[in-house]
């Protein structure tokens, strides 16, 4: 399809809103992708064509395309052009996000299934993860998260009851634990460990993957002020998710 036709499609998808222009451009491109108007591996219009058709600056287009590339929506090949990436979810490696919101931002539907929600007595390892004593009461949740009915994450979470006393009373098929916990014990610090692992047979069955597919595992400990709130294990199928992170550093002279 000719570049000017694609650019015209994008212009029609642009919404009139108070958002910065580069965000409106990004939103319009994501809409073209999620609605299937623009297909995986398809080449999108050049920056010059987008500037001309949308009537915005090259800086605006460049920023939108750079951010969409870093977020996994586009692939930019120097001297060749910019292409639609094959659809693949991502999760922020250096940040803590609500998986339901991540999925919604891709224009997809999030659902979840609670496998277990219970009170336990902490073993030595669990006690250490939550800064408690062996034998203390702790809360545990085991949830599968789905994107358009496809399982994309197994979440196992230990929770400090002192920080979330009503944790077991919530409906986590209506809202993820993240939402409840951020409301009552806002996150102020966190630590991550990221690993490539082979899932157990039960995990493979829950994620609907074959026996040879590896997974990404994030082990995450979070604090509110100076108290540990949760310790969680987040398991993602390797073929359906990737990690995305960004950082800022000193500029080179």
Describe the 3D structure:
The chain is α+β, with helices and mostly antiparallel strands and 253 residues long. It folds into 2 domains: 3-84, Orthogonal Bundle (Arc Repressor Mutant, subunit A); 89-244, Chorismate lyase-like (Chorismate lyase, 3-Layer(aba) Sandwich). Helices cover 30% and strands 31% of the residues. The chain contains 8 helices and 10 strands. A 6-stranded antiparallel β-sheet has the order 4-5-6-9-8-7. Strands 1-2 form a two-stranded antiparallel ribbon. Strand 8 (215-224) and strand 9 (227-237) form a beta hairpin. The longest helix is centred in the N-terminal third of the chain and has 14 residues, at 21-34. The relative contact order is 0.12.
Question: Which features characterize this protein?
Answer:
single chain, 253 residues, alpha+beta, Arc Repressor Mutant, subunit A, Chorismate lyase, two-stranded antiparallel sheet, 8 helices, 30% helix, disordered C terminus
Shape: elongated
Based on the structure, what is the oligomeric state of the protein chains?
A: single chain
The unreliable regions are 247-253
Number of domains: 2
CATH superfamily of the largest domain: Chorismate lyase-like
What gyration radius follows from the Cα positions, in whole Å?
A: 21 Å
Compute the number of strand runs.
10
Structural class: alpha+beta
CATH topology of the largest domain: Chorismate lyase
Instruction: Tell me the name of the CATH class of the largest domain.
Output: Alpha Beta
Q: In which range does the helix fraction lie?
A: 25-40%
């Amino acid at each position: 399809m000719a570049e000017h036709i694609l650019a015209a499609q994008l212009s029609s998808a642009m919404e009139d809103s108070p958002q910065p222009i580069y965000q409106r451009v990004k939103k319009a491109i994501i809409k073209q992708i999620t609605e299937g108007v623009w297909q995986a591996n398809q080449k999108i219009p050049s920056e010059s064509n987008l500037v001309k058709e949308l009537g915005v600056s090259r800086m605006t287009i460049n920023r939108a395309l750079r951010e969409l590339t870093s977020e996994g929506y586009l692939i930019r090949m120097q001297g060749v052009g910019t292409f639609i990436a094959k659809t693949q979810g991502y999760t922020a490696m250096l940040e803590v996000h609500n998986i339901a919101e991540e999925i919604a931002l891709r224009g997809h539907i999030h659902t979840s299934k609670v496998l277990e929600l219970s009170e336990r007595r902490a073993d030595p390892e669990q006690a250490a993860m939550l800064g408690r004593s062996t034998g203390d009461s702790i809360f545990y949740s085991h949830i599968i998260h789905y994107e358009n009915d496809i399982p994309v994450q197994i979440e196992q979470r230990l929770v400090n009851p002192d920080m979330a006393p009503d944790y077991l009373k919530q409906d986590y098929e209506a809202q993820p634990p993240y939402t409840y916990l951020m409301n009552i014990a806002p996150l102020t610090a966190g630590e991550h460990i990221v690993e490539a692992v082979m899932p157990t047979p039960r995990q493979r069955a829950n994620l609907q993957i074959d026996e040879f597919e590896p997974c990404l595992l994030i082990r995450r400990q979070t604090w509110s002020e100076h108290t540990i709130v949760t310790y969680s294990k987040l398991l993602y199928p390797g073929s359906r998710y990737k990690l995305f992170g960004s950082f800022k550093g000193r500029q080179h002279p």
